[in-house]
Amino acid sequence: MDQRPVGVMDSGLGGVSVLRTLVKELPQERFIYLGDTRNAPYGDKPEGEIRRLALLCAHRLLDRDIKALVVACNTATSAAAEALRRALPIPVIGMEPALKPAALAGRPGRVLVMATTATLRQKKFKALMARYGQRAILLPCPGLMEFAERGELDSPALDEYLRRRLAPLAGMQVGAAVLGCTHYVFLKEAIAKALPGAALFDGNLGTARQLRRVLERGDQLSPGPGGVRFMSTDPQGVQAMERMFALPGGV
To answer: Using CA atoms, how far apart are residues 21 and 198, in angstroms rounded to an integer?
Structure first.
């Protein structure tokens, strides 16, 4: 048994969607969530800069005596997971776009992968594409995560953004859509409306189950009680995270 907290990091608010799943799956654990809101978004930054920022966040959490780190950001995982595992003395659990479950679901039509530009250009994602991307269409979505950062989860501006971004797919059957950025999970309703009939896939539950496996393997599951603490690199960030965490319903 290990009552030390689990660290969760993201470029901003999107990883709160992962945190909600982690708390649901592992309610006895304590979590410290760090959002690097001062430097968000990561999706349009060079790989070296993403890696530098991720390492800074990880060491800040390590100073809080965390027993494991969840990188609740597809972009940071792709760019920095290997460096984090080399640098940290604790388990590092990353994320990847849920292309595998979407491809294996057997839905008719194409598999649309919505993600940041940085995620789609990484070697890690290209390897995933080589295995499961035969029916996939890649759609970089610069600017989409900012709707979640602003708390703009349902608005005419968001609907218009999605309409314009999806316009090249008009007439194409999309049976599944991969939400390849944790921010997009908060935009599920708007995305589902823009892609009627498509099943939406994200990697949040898989990440939570992987954390459980890692903690079980190390005999590090906590007996409780659980809890959540928020940290931010921006003074206003914590309040925004708390609002996102408290949203009704699932994500």
So the answer is: 22
CB 203 within 8 A of CB 95: yes
Confirm whether 181 is a catalytic residue. Answer: yes
Catalytic residue among 148, 181, 190, 211: 181
Mean pLDDT for 2-18 is 96
Question: Do residues 31 and 93 make contact, with C-beta atoms less than 8 angstroms apart?
Answer: no
pLDDT tens profile 140-174: 999 999 999 999 999 999 999 999 999 999 999 99
- The torsion angles phi and psi of 217, rounded to 5 degrees, stand at -65, -35
Predicted local confidence at residue 250, as pLDDT = 65
Yes or no: say if 215 and 108 are a contact pair by the CB < 8 Å rule: no
Could you tell me the pTM of the whole model? 0.93
Catalytic-labelled residue, pool 16, 23, 70, 73 = 73
**Helices within 45-187 (DSSP H only):** 47-62, 74-87, 99-104, 117-121, 123-132, 144-149, 156-166
